[in-house]
Known about the structure:
By secondary structure, the protein is mainly alpha-helical.
Amino acid sequence: MHHAHAHERGGPEGRMIDVLRNRQFLLLFLVQALSQTGQNMVNFALLILVRGVIDEHNVAQANTAIGLAVLAFSSPAILFSPIAGVLVERASKQRVLIITNVLRGVAALGFVLIQPTWTPMLALIMLYLLAFGAGAVGQFFGPALGATIPGLVTRAQYVQANALINLTITGSQILGFAALSPFLIRVYGVNTVIVGIVIVFLICAALSYFIPIGKPEPRSQQTTYHSRTRRFFDELREGGRIILDRPILVKAIAYLSLAMATYLMIATLGPEYVTNVLQLPVEDIAFILVPAGIGVIVGVVSVGQITKRFGIERTIDAAIAAAGIGLVLIASVGVISQFIWQDPADERTGALYIAGVLAVVLGMSNAFILAPSQSLLQSRAPENARARVWAAFFTVANGVAFIPIIFAGALADLFGVVTVMFGMGLILIAVGAYQITSRDADAESDAHVAR
């Protein structure tokens, strides 16, 4: 299969247009874009439904309840990702894509049945459980997709293919979470929107049928249940060893985890930031998320050029430091706008503009961390363990993200959202600066040895 389609994959150079001309990749790209946008719309709808329950019953710990909702759709990665990696490697990737889309649709349909008038505990638990179920199913989608890409594009096109998939991951977060969901829910109501999303998932399942995806890894037909279970755990362990033996994979996973943790924390704190700091209704979170999306698009389009010029690791380090500076400044927006404008009305408008510009910086930083780190993962992972390495990344990344989400909501309830964002920015600046200086020190000692 690898060689049969080589001529269809475009030229050896990794130009974005060549990658998109590849029909098989384009189909995968489309399924990814629609399915992930649908899932992000469901995630936003969940926050609106949780908010509805909070407002209906005047629940006191609002940020914590929202934090638990974010946790419900992000925590399954820790529990199911390692299993997903091994199972996906043995299964038909195509079947995995079809089944995950159908099951996501079923979970979304469940949201429609829950009423905010139920007792708050029951309503919230049911919402969290459904979100958790959809998240669990999603864990099988990611590794199937990640393991499929290298079979559809040439090695030179990995960074661009990942940048495109990354664009859909982030684009779907912005489109689904920030633009489409708030707008459509305001116009049509939350239940109508969810039913629409169910239809999108079914379309994705149908499209997945036409993606030419490799057969599952061969295995002898005579294996007993017992030996299969043992092999399953051996493969899990081997996946872990493959990563630990390659420091570059450990580093790539660490970078990606940091980027995801930051993103999910901002998702948790965003509603509170928009209502308290910018003094806008929560549905207007689009004023922050759309500029962030524009930043991501600019980042994805230019990431190939930037990594060629500065190298993958240096690009990522600088992006982490830039994200930290952006966060510190976005937390200080109130103070900055007070300093510049005297009139309270101007001050509010000014704060909104500054926050928008800084959101662009955060979006670009995100793109400069994610796409290069993912291409490191794919190009340095051995072919037979790609899905497992990918799954390990999802597990670790979400495990790391797990901690700040819980604390972000609770800390914001205690100290306020601005303090938490400011602190998070300082941590990122420290990490980026440390990486940059230690790399320069390594380079100097290498040069010294060479002399």
